[in-house]
Amino acid sequence: MTQTLHVQIKSADRSDLEKRLEAIDAGEDVDPSEPTLSIENLETFGRVFRSTNLELLEAIVEHEPESIRELARLVDRNPPEVLENVNELADYGLVELEKNGRAKRPVVWYDEIDADLPLTTKSEQGPKANA
């Protein structure tokens, strides 16, 4: 079964989260929401999802490496560089690092990313008047 992470470019909006938490606290049933990552802007999106990071995510999903060193071998890169990229991905919640003895095992729960990339700002999306 495919697990999808939805990515959007916009500031993180926590108002819905606060409403959901209040409903849970009140004992109400709350439908699970789709897992969504909000990226601040297109520049950050490009940095986070650059080809080297996507290659790491693909290798983690396909090969389930037991360590950063094994992941580095899979992508034919130096372990310190891979660790730096994996830490960046972990900072955005795209990778989890599990303790595996003395090593850290990179793990992702999804196998597909769905990105919402708007080409206009919200204020420009309304209907245009004919001149």
Automatic annotation (TrEMBL):
Protein name from the UniProt record: Putative transcriptional regulator
InterPro entries: WH-like_DNA-bd_sf, WH_DNA-bd_sf
UniProt organism field: Halorubrum alkaliphilum
